[in-house]
Amino acid sequence: MVRKEVVLNYIGKILIIIGIAMLTSLIWAIYFGEPVFKSILSGAAITIFFGILLSYIYRHNYEINYREGFAIVTLGWLSASLFGSLPFVFSGYFPTFADAFFETVSGFTTTGASILIDIEALPYSLLFWRSLTQWLGGMGIMVLFVAIIASMGVRANQLFRAEIPGGAMSEKLSPRIRETAKLLWITYVILSLILFIFLISFGMNIFDALCHTFTTMATGGFSTKNESIAFYNAQIQWIIIVFMFLAGANFSLYYFAYKNRTLKRIWQNSEFKIYTCIVLVAAFLVFISLKTIPDYEERIRTSLFQVVSILTTTGFATADYEKWNPLGQSVIFLLMFIGGCAGSTAGNIKVGRYMIMLKRVKIELEQMLHPKALISLRFEDKVLSNNLVINVLQYFFLYIILVLVSTLILAALDVDRITSFTASLSCISNIGPGFGIVGPTENYSHIPYLGKYILSILMLIGRLEIYPALILFMPTYWKE
What we know:
Layout: H1 4-23, H2 26-31, H3 37-57, H4 66-84, H5 86-91, H6 97-108, H7 124-139, H8 141-148, H9 156-163, H10 177-201, H11 206-217, H12 234-247, H13 251-260, H14 264-268, H15 270-289, H16 296-311, H17 326-335, H18 351-369, E1 378-379, E2 382-383, H19 386-412, H20 417-428, H21 449-463, H22 467-470
Antiparallel strand pairs: 1-2
Helix pairs in contact: 1-3, 1-4, 4-6, 4-9, 6-7, 6-21, 7-11, 8-9, 8-10, 10-11, 10-12, 10-13, 12-16, 15-16, 15-17, 18-19, 19-20, 19-21, 20-21
């Protein structure tokens, strides 16, 4: 049974965290003397007020059950997006609520899809909040929540597993879920700090470095410049490539590398190996397709940047891949179906799930040759249960169905078929750019209002890895 006082109490606490985070944007509004100060302050005040109200009215001493865990995660993300859009709504820089909501959902889900035509026209404080939403959403609002709230009890596991990127495939760093959440966020913060120092050292100003640190480590893709990372020099582009790649790998590997003072565990991780191979092979194919770029360093950099950006679902751009030849475009298109590693900030299906599906196919073929053989499916030296394998296969099926349904809805709204399909694929995969009118040099401003809401829902479903969001629509979920 889902107890509303449990769900609403925790949603209230989440809103308090979001409201406090929103207040940090005021620093830039004050520093630059921006009139949107009132818009941000009003948004933060309303968010904190409702957060305190819900926390107080629905205070309780219950532990979360598994059904409430799913409700808190899904409704918590939705609430964060609704209230997080208030500074955008009040500022007047976003024409409609649909636009403000879309931008905020895109931020928290680290999708990076934008309706903004002129990003640089936005005040610094709103650009900062826009980037901060991605950093908060990168490792996960609920993971941060679990790390902060000490009194959650054993059922914090329900929130952690339902929300962390990679879900059940992610690794615990400690027997205690709260400790695992803290260690993941500490790792996330340390890597962010290192990236920030690098960006400043190679010529990026403090504001831009901070914003791009947020959006790179979150594999989000929001930029403070209309030209995205193409605005910056080659050294900064190489730095972004490295940290996008790191953000797309399993964060627990970095913790164990530090703890054990060796990189052995990283090199032994089969998912990381496949992830690296995909980057190298895809970059090579793009490299040989970019014959129009005579400079080899630039061609290597452009190839690696776009491959890593799309594979990790970051969505930054340094080139318009829609102008590439068919081979280059095909590589980018196929990468839009993959994603990074489990336990990373990347979205999409993820490398680990593909490995499990391929291992399952191999076992089926072996059992056709040896019908009496009992073959277990192993992943990272662990035997996977049949339930988990079935879960992965069902996930892939639901992913494709949701993309197709969204494509049909957008097509019914008179969006062309290429844009309809790639926008749906890009949003559920939390990538950002697609093809057509949502390509790397375009935006989502031309999508109809209803289409923006559909894609916003798709972004949330994709970020929550489908199951926690869809389960709320089952009638049996709400019954005792």
